[in-house]
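Thread: "does anyone have the structure for this chain?"

Original post by V.I.:
We have the sequence but no experimental structure in hand. Need at least a predicted one for the grant figures.
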Amino acid sequence: MIKSLRGMNDILSEDYERFTYFIDLASNIAQKYGFHFIETPLLEETALFKRSVGESSDIVGKEMYQFIDKGENDVCLRPEGTAGVVRAFIQKKLDKAGGIHRFFYHGPMFRYERPQKGRLREFHQFGVESFGIDSVYEDATMIMMVADILKACGIGYRLQLNSLGDQNCMPAYRENLVSFIESVEDEICEDCKRRKSTNPIRVLDCKNEKCQSLYTNAPKLINVLCSSCEDDFSKLKNILHDNEIDYEIDTNLVRGLDYYSKTAFEFVSDNIGSQSAIAGGGRYDRLVEFLDGRPTPAVGFAMGIERLMELIVMPETKRDGYYLGAMDDEAIDLIIKLTQDKRKNFKANCDFKAKNLKNHLKGADKVNARFCCVIGSNELNDTTIWVKDLEAKSEKVILLEDF
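Reply from O.Q.:
Generated one for you, tokens below.
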């Protein structure tokens, strides 16, 4: 028997209902915020992610599904969503058009990593990207949108916040951090030693407990922000406070690449084990330029849908639509026609086999229909149909023309 590949799961039945419920809910909220749907390809040039995600990252170095296609192109399945949206933004010359462009997307991403709860090799993200607004108000908008989505899903969270500075204050801080890393280099892990030269800011995000204990004494960027970054961060905190969104400052919340700046945020849950991040984002004002576009301010976020699945509180489902069935073979063609008529305006299911009333009632229950509608020989002779309202627990026989 052929089985699905490790870390690539089917989405069926209840999981499907939760999955589509979340997509619809998050999409509706994004549209209320003025965002428009974008669909980018699953397959992109590998160079896109080497330049955007960074060759020193684990994603590019170890986790991408990368191969040479029949046209000798170096391609890969997308490991995240932002790079493809930025590529489309530049390719469609929207960077040169100017103005404000806001997109949301959802779909599968692929990373070859060890599968575990809430972390698969094929996983799904819902994401949002905004281009053309150099204002902390847009950063706050992103955070408020995530908060609205999680609240609508009935999911509790903690919001962690940090500022990554900009080109004015980050370079000097990076030098100080590298000096600190060198002072404890004999005690840190191999990953941190490698990151010292390739991506020093990322050492602060190391999950090794010994490294974390050492980095408590590391210099904090938030203490040496330039006046512009300090003003923006203060304004962001005020906006969140005014809109009753609680937050905590996490000075180890970082993004390692140079095009990230200022706001960084993560929403975490205490109900999903060690993989606690359920959404994250921030500002990346230099990424469009980094991918050969015109300099454009940008900010966005992404949410891992699989991590949210077991946390989503589903609304109480109500019976809906029609179930139609025949008790005799002679009535099956009529039942099919009536079902097609009902489908013009309502949800409708029918059974193609003649069954007794008890089995038709079971069939109606299975599809959670409100009305169970059955035709037997008597109804066929009288041109009527038996209808039971399964919500009101009432039943009657009515003329087909009234039905």
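V.I.: this helps a lot. The chain has two domains: 13-169+225-311, 322-399.
O.Q.: and The CA atoms of residues 370 and 393 lie 10 Å apart.
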